[in-house]
Amino acid sequence: MFASFDLLMAFVLFAFVSSITPGPNNTMLLASGVNFGALRTIPHALGVSIGFMLMVLGVGFGLGEVFKAWPVLYTVLRYVGAAYLLYLAYKIATSGPISANGKSTAKPMTFLGAAAFQWVNPKAWVMAVGAITTYTPAQGYVVNVIVIAAVFALVNLPSVGIWVMFGSALRNLLQNPRWLMLFNVLMAVLLVISLYPLLFVQSAFS
Fold first, then answer.
1. What are the domain boundaries of the chain?
2. Which of 20, 32, 47, 154 is deepest in the core (most CB within 10 A)?
3. To the nearest whole percent, how much of the chain has pLDDT over 70?
């Protein structure tokens, strides 16, 4: 298990800060909260947390070593992720207005879609690699990787949930189609800006 309680607490702080700060996931969850409400965004939020937990397990149990051995695979993944993020930005920017019954004419991201997105999310890769390389003791490694992944999921879910609730709280303020359109365009722009670390910052596996 962990070498010390202090190390575990340091990891919890890392998990909280990295989960609650802005990034592709939180930008999309905020937009989803506005366009679809908190209840319809729950599958999206669960997909983020559980998908990321599986990603941490994958990195911890050797996927990171595969990318170190063949960095071209990670390069391909990065640009696939960039293309998908641009597609998601387009979908957010062109989301329809909230209808009379309080729902958007578009559809929220599914659980499986959100879980799969983690594998092309640049911030998720940085978080997963940082968790495994910095906070996972070598002694009892397998158990520690499982603990790291589980704790990250437990910290991540309420953290991303804050963004969902904030978006849901903004729904009443954005009933005006013009303001909603401006909000969605802003979210799309922020999602595109989040491509910066993916395209211009050195790969974690180089």
1. 25-199
2. 32
3. 84
Distance of CA 109 to the CA centre of its chain: 12
Helix residue ranges per DSSP H, the chain: 5-20, 24-58, 64-69, 71-93, 111-117, 122-135, 141-169, 177-193, 196-200
Do residues 62 and 179 lie in contact, with contact meaning Cβ atoms separated by under 8 Å? no
Tokens 């941490």 correspond to: 56
For residue 137, give both structure tokens: 């003791």
CB 92 within 8 A of CB 28: yes
Predicted pLDDT at 185: 87
* Backbone phi and psi for residue 123, each to the nearest 5 degrees, phi listed first: -65, -35
pTM score of the predicted model: 0.80
- Determine the Cα–Cα distance for residues 35 and 171; give it in Å rounded to an integer: 7
Q: What is the largest CA-CA distance in the chain?
A: 58
Q: Which of 97, 117, 95, 110 is nearest to 23 (CA)?
A: 117
* Bridge partners of residue 177, in order along the sequence: none
Residue-level pLDDT at 164: 96
Tens-digit pLDDT profile for residues 114-133: 999 998 887 888 888 888 88
Answer for the pair 29, 48: CB distance below 8 angstroms, yes or no.
yes
Using CA atoms, how far apart are residues 159 and 19, in angstroms rounded to an integer? 6
Averaged pLDDT score across all residues of the chain: 82
Round to the nearest angstrom and report the end-to-end CA distance of the chain: 30
